[in-house]
Structures are given as structure tokens and as C-alpha cells.
């Protein structure tokens, strides 16, 4: 979870920012003065700072200088009143990322924070990869045993040998397209260069153009300084265009020109800049359908599709499921100090039969959640979510069983059905009383009473 620090002497501003960004899932820290802010930045891992230039008797520019001395890579967004824009420009010269005028709208705050955090992530990744840190690839290997995955690995090794070839990775969401892109980069001669990723569906068209190609000072409102684009930042490395099928037609034309000429021009610029970048694109859409519908350029498709790699859905390569389950079970057992050693045949059969609409990403999340909620040494059906291991339904009534129940009487037949239902729910939750009560939608005390009355073993919570 990203941590954002708001520094403002007005409690109303701090509380408003905490509310807006807290709703977006960020962890928000707050400081009313420079000393408190300096302490937080020194002691906490802060990803982004929102700094008011007018902190009562304190000069916000001096606070900015001190924060930059503590962490030179810290991103700072300046908050400024209408009359202090000149000071905001001075702050940009001192290394601030951007500035916002008061009063600001919630949507504007959300957008600039999102862009700043994406920028911070990219900067860190570039620094890490340039140092030759390959832990990203070592920690997330391409796991599987089937012929389909082996063919993908063979293709990846082949294209990695080529210094420039453009790659188009297709497959459903969650199949591992980003992992394939990273592996291509890691195995290539460009591994010492940066690997830069951008999701083409996550930004408005005008921001995406600036992010990809950069802009010159004064190119548009708020373009207060020259900005390097991601294609420039990825020079001698790889740029990964995720969800390229969502890119607007106007940007597609400019991307096509880059692929043809290997040159970019910043927004508002007049000079062409030579780049040496491998482009890897990915999509979960059928781009040929997009061509027919007029939403994707045919000439761009053929430029991207120089070396196609298709990743089958997990339901199409079920032979990989046992290997993936074992890999993630070992990984998360270590991460959460669990004692899982194996998967029961019944649980593995359920995992192999499930259609996995979310593919490998969904399987990974299921095993992670299982290791958070349960402990081993054996993973059983009761540990799995209900969509994978639904409660065993009590035996359906037939004319024959109904006649037998008539002989028992209504009360005894009802008791028998209730006992079957509770037993099935307990098996589903791995004998967890709290979860069983929630599943049956009854109070835990009521469940304990009924378990005792029916002679069921008393499981632990």
C-alpha cells in the first residue's frame, strides 16, 4: 500500500486529503509543520508528499529543501494559493514533481497522485534494473509442465536473441503476459537497460501522449518544464505497452510512426529524437476484431505482430495446474509461516476441474488466501473458497426417501436434514466453527448447540 504524506497547517485540508485518498486505498500520513514532516520522512517509507507552501510562519520552500536532503528521490507535489504561483515555480526548480492550486477538486487530486505514484514506480524500476537486480525474474518464474508452456518458453528464448524485433503477446487477463514480457527483456542483450511498463488503458489520451513521448515546456497548460517521455527513458531497453488494444486511434498513428522511424518527437517539440528500444505490446482483445470495427489500425497491427506469442488460458493447459499449485503453496507457506506440505487428491481434483476465469492470477490469489486463512500440513477441500469447493448438498428427496421420512415423522426427518447440512458446511470450512456459522447464516452459539445436539465432533475455531 502506497504511503502519502500531507503537510498542511490547516486541519480541514489535512482531513479532506486524508478522506479523498483514503477512499482510494492509500495510507495517508499527516503533518501540520515541517519538524513533524521531517521526522515522518526520516522514519517512514513515504512514496509521495503533498506540501503546502504556506505553513504559517514556516517557509514551504525550506521544508522542501530539507525533505529532499533526507530523500533526494522523494516526489513532492506542491499545494499553493492563487497568489503564490511564482513560489510554486521556484519549488519546481528545487525538484518538486508538480503543483496544484487551492482550492483543488477531488478528481484532480486523485489523478495527479496516481500519475506521480506511477512515475515513482517507473523511476525505481529503472534504477533497480540498471543495477542488474534480477530478483523480479527469479521470484516469479514461468512455472508449468505442459507442452504449451514449453513452446512459449522456446518462443521467448528465440525472440530474446533478436536485438530489436517487436513482440505482440496475446491472451486472456491473468495469463501472465507481463511476466512473458519481462522474461524476454531479462534473457535479451538489453537486460542491463531499463524495462518500462505502461498500461495504455489507464490514462486519458492527452496524458498518454505526454507520458509516451514527453513534452516541451509550454506545450500545454501546466507544462511548466520539459519532460522526458517513456520511450526516451527506455532507450537501450524495453518498453512494454500493456492493453495496447485500448489505445486511442490518434495515439496509434503516432506509435506507428515511432515503430517505423525509431524516432520520437516530444509534444510541442520540433526536433526528432533517435531511440533504441524494443517494443513489447500485449492485449487481451482480438485486434483483428478491432480492425474490422475501426477501433484499431491495421498497419499498426502488422507492425506490432512481427513476433506473436499467444498464452493459452489456464483451463486450456490443465497439466500446469498441479505444478502452479505446488509452487504457490510452497511460496505462501513460507511467507505466512504455515506448515502446508501437500495437497490432498480431493482438493487437487477440485482445483483441476475449476475453469479459472481469472487464469494464473486467480489461482495465485486463491492459494495466497488459503495460506492466510488456514494451516496445513495438507490442503483439503474445506480450505478452498466456495466457488471451487461448494458445500456438499444433502441428498435430494425422492418418492422413496419421502416415504421413509414419513415413517420417521416430520421432526425426526427435519433433524436428519439439519445434521446433514451442518456436517456438509463443517467439511467445507475445514471444521472452523466461526466460518461454518457464517456459511449457514446462524449465530455461532446456535451452531454449537445444534452440533452438540446432533453429536457432531466439536471442531476448533
Any overview of this molecule?
Helix 2 packs parallel to helix 3, helix 14 (321-335) crosses helix 16 (359-373) and helix 18 packs across helix 19 (433-440). It is built from 20 helices and 18 strands. A hairpin with an 8-residue loop joins strand 13 and strand 14 (273-274). The two termini are 30 Å apart. The strands form six sheets. It has a five-stranded parallel sheet, sandwiched between helices. The chain has 461 residues and is of the alpha/beta class. It folds into four domains: 3-126, Rossmann fold, CATH 3.40.50.2300; 132-312, Rossmann fold; 318-383, Orthogonal Bundle (Helicase, Ruva Protein, domain 3), CATH 1.10.8; 399-454, Arc Repressor Mutant, subunit A, CATH 1.10.10.
